[in-house]
Design a protein that fits this description.
Blueprint (H helix, E strand, L loop, with lengths): L1 H7 L10 H7 L3 E12 L2 H17 L1 H8 L5 H15 L6 E11 L1
Antiparallel strand pairs: 1-2
Helix pairs in contact: 3-4, 3-5
């Protein structure tokens, strides 16, 4: 769903994989490519991340676009929100977000 919505918005949900290529194409050299991550594992971290996404899939422009673009309906979004809240309350839950990074010099 996330990929479908970003595509409809003329964006690429996986753009990070192209970042170094785009930076080189822009004329930069001496790239330092690295990564970092966010890990949500503690009860507090899961509560924050799970709550953020539970709200996002129901109460944001993302939710409005999902319905408008025919990617999901309100009932499906409600189920997704419930799933995020269940995950947030699961003591075994872990969510990792990986970030690609490029430091470039001209």
């Amino acid at each position: 769903m996330y990929h479908q919505i970003t595509a409809k918005n003329h964006a690429d949900a996986d753009a990070g994989r192209y970042l170094a290529t785009w930076v080189r194409a822009a004329g930069f050299h001496e790239l330092e490519v690295s990564s970092s991550e966010w890990t949500f594992e503690t009860p507090e971290e899961r509560a924050w991340w799970g709550g953020l996404w539970a709200d996002r899939v129901r109460l944001s422009d993302f939710a409005r676009q999902a319905v408008e673009y025919g990617v999901a309906n309100d009932a499906e979004l409600a189920l997704m929100a419930q799933a995020f809240r269940r995950w947030a309350n699961d003591p075994e839950g872990v969510f990792v977000v990986v970030h690609g990074e490029v430091l470039a010099r001209a």
